[in-house]
Write a structure and sequence with these properties.
The chain is α/β, with parallel strands linked by helices and 473 residues long. Helices cover 39% and strands 22% of the residues. The protein has 14 helices and 22 strands. The strands form six sheets. The chain has a seven-stranded mixed sheet with strand order 14-17-18-13-12-19-20, with helices on both faces. Helix 1 packs across helix 7 and helix 2 crosses helix 6. The protein is globular. Bound molecules: NADP nicotinamide-adenine-dinucleotide phosphate. NADP nicotinamide-adenine-dinucleotide phosphate binds next to helix 7 and helix 8.
């Protein structure tokens, strides 16, 4: 853990394992509620000096961190593959995406513009300034163990806030590697603090109830996000919630089914299906269903599964046994209710697979609304395909979920694309595009997928208060 600039080891530790091999990578300090309070003490004490630095000073530190992170790209990527499981190529892409937030917010720090507003009174002037919200508590998931941290810390630091971070139990090593880079770049003692723990609830409770924390930013599942937002409500703490998804992927009759299927194979199996923007319901017009399924099945059955450190591996392990159990339960339920398994559909446990958590990349056809997979986030390598025949119904079907994070549209018709884009109740929509994300673009969900946006201009606003001055002259 890092508290007030001191790296702390505790007698109580927990093991971090490689999900591909079961090997123990390291033992990490197992923090408690009192460590969370000590981290908040440090962040609170560091707040006046840090918020008193100029935007240009904060920008320079973030810019240095960006350079250091790119210099360390290869070692960070290897650590991520070992700790989280994604193939090395994908890990390098994530390090780059994570670094992009440092650069973006190094630049946005210098654009914390205020404004003047004309008054109806001749003797009055209005001025608006933006000030840091205060101490920020951040809780992050394991699936993107680097970028989910920089997406929060970079704007918080740029705004002049200090931070206490609790990374996921499965991936504390990536978190510590990023924080070491921030320290090396010149972040002063107490400005960023990290509490690692195998028991998140007591730490989360302190984050939600200590009055000195003025903002809670969380990325993770919807049930945990709701719990934390509820706990933060009595003090009216500001909250940002980046939560789960259940993305529809709509392929209209005029789309190129081969192009759409290639896109679906890429985005569905991104990070072994463990991304919040992975499609969970792939709706394909019945007139192009067969060529779509043929391409998807061919592509998916060729995906090489294994240890992400090895050449040619496209699909790494799932995070743990619970993830395997959830995927297996959804596939069994779908099969029992009439789905057809075109490829995959089984846990992989023979030979080297036996040491890790592997599931065969799977394509299910004939999926219907009564199946679990149609409603629950899968977070695993299973593509669920549903055919449709009525364009008028498809928007209502796609919107029929409590989630509202990502959605995808494939069509050659600009009017269909625009009408569907405007009618879908999702925060991020790819139109013939499977990667609608960037540090420059706002990321976040509607409905029960979240509150607030990360990245883009909006990302820094999440860490700022608006202050009005009325001056009588
Ligand atoms: P999770 O179980 O909700 O955990 C997320 C974080 O919350 C982890 O650090 C976890 O600690 C912590 N946590 C769990 N229970 C807590 C509690 N009672 N109090 C305080 N902290 C608590 O989610 P996950 O399985 O790690 O991540 C997968 C989910 O994240 C999916 O639903 C995915 O869609 C979502 N996600 C969303 C986005 C987005 O931008 N919208 C991005 C990535 C992921 P432990 O690790 O110790 O359990």
């Amino acid at each position: 853990m890092l508290i007030n600039g001191q790296w702390i080891q505790t007698t109580q530790t927990f093991a971090v394992t490689n999900p591909a091999t079961g090997e123990v990578l390291e033992s990490v300090a197992d923090g408690s509620a009192s460590d969370a309070t000590a981290a908040i003490d440090a962040a609170h004490n560091a707040m006046p000096a840090w918020s008193g630095t100029t935007a240009h000073e904060r920008s320079a530190i973030l810019y240095r961190a960006w350079q250091l992170m790119l210099d360390a790209k290869e070692s960070l990527a290897l650590l991520m593959t070992q700790e989280q499981g994604k193939p090395l190529k994908a890990a390098r892409t994530e390090v780059q995406y994570g670094a992009d937030f440092l650069l973006w917010f190094a630049e946005e720090a210098k654009r914390l513009y205020g404004e003047t507003i004309p008054s109806a009174r001749k003797d009055q002037r209005f001025m608006v300034q933006h000030q840091p919200v205060g101490v920020v508590a951040a809780i992050t998931p394991w699936n993107y163990p680097v970028s989910m941290i920089t997406r929060k810390l970079a704007p918080a630091l740029a705004a002049g806030c200090t931070v206490v971070l609790k990374p996921a139990e499965a991936t504390p090593l990536c978190a510590m590697a990023i924080v070491k880079i921030l320290v090396q770049a010149g972040v002063p003692d107490g400005v960023v603090n990290v509490v690692t723990t195998s028991n998140p609830a007591p730490v989360g409770e302190i984050f939600c109830t200590d009055k000195r924390v003025r903002k809670l930013t969380f990325t993770g599942s919807t049930p945990v996000g709701k719990k934390l937002a509820t706990a933060a409500a009595p003090q009216l703490k500001r909250v940002s919630m980046e939560l789960g998804g259940h993305a529809p992927f709509i392929v209209f009759a005029d789309a190129d089914p081969v192009h759409a299927a290639k896109g679906a194979a890429l985005i569905k199996f991104l990070n072994t299906g463990q991304a919040c923007i992975c499609p969970n319901r792939i709706y394909v017009h019945e007139t192009i269903l067969q060529p779509f399924l043929d391409t998807l099945k061919t592509r998916v059955s060729k995906l090489a599964v294994g240890n992400g450190q090895h050449d040619g591996i496209a699909i790494g392990p799932l995070v743990n046994q619970q993830a395997i159990d959830k995927v297996s339960a959804q596939v069994t339920d779908a099969k029992n209710k009439g789905a057809t398994v075109l490829t995959g559909g089984t846990t992989l446990s023979e030979g080297d697979y036996g040491h890790g958590h592997f599931y065969a990349p799977t394509v299910l056809a004939d999926v219907t609304p009564d199946m679990l997979i149609y409603r629950e986030e899968t977070f695993g390598p299973v593509a669920a395909v549903i055919s449709f025949n009525d364009d008028d119904d498809i928007i209502a079907l796609a919107n029929d979920t409590d989630y509202g994070l990502a959605a995808y549209i494939y069509t050659q018709n600009i009017s269909t694309a625009m009408r569907t884009f405007e009618a879908l109740r999702f925060g991020i929509i790819g139109i013939n595009d499977i990667n609608p994300t960037s540090a420059a673009a706002p990321f976040g969900g509607m409905k029960e997928s979240g509150l607030g946006r990360e990245g883009a201009r909006e990302g820094i606003a999440e860490y700022l208060e608006t202050k009005l001055g009325g001056l009588s002259i």
